[in-house]
Amino acid sequence: MNSFFKSIGLYNNLSVDLDINSTELIQRLWKITYKTNNTFISWEKDSSIPTRFEYRGMIESNHFKIRRRARLFDMNKNNPIFQGTISDKNGKSSVAIEFFPSWLQILNWFFILCFCSILIFANTRGDQKDFMFVVIAVAITVTQYFILKRGISRGKYEFERELIYITQKP
What we know:
By secondary structure, this protein is α+β, with helices and mostly antiparallel strands. The chain has one domain (2-168). It is 44% helix and 23% strand. It is built from 4 helices and 6 strands. It has helices spanning 2-7, 22-31, 103-123, 131-168; strands at residues 12-18, 33-35, 55-59, 63-68, 81-89, 92-100. A 6-stranded mixed sheet has the order 1-6-5-4-3-2. Helix 3 runs antiparallel to helix 4. The chain is elongated, with a radius of gyration of 20 Å. The relative contact order is 0.18.
């Protein structure tokens, strides 16, 4: 499935070498990550998580699966999931991270795509062809795609910046 996401631009990966050992990196990641599951059915809302935590998810000894948490009045619901592995090489840690949208975001985009396709086919049958409606439906679908794509690139930039900041602070 990652190859499909990569072919349509909704998957990105990153490899970062950091000047910190892996156990200390995991410990510092835990300081900014609230332990919770990453499914869309979660008992705790993002707005109820304490403000000192930037991320929510699970971090284990050599891999993690987290995402940026939403703030109370945050309208940006397009935070991608970061899934990565941490390995230690000569006292330095190497982090390989994959960025992809959550299944709820993909499901939402799929429903928008299906709804717009049905409306396009309903309006272009017979004698009456309303092409302005087709343009609006296509614009809605393409806009949602670019919102997802922008969320992944922004999430990649922010998480890379966060990792570098974590390693630099004492």
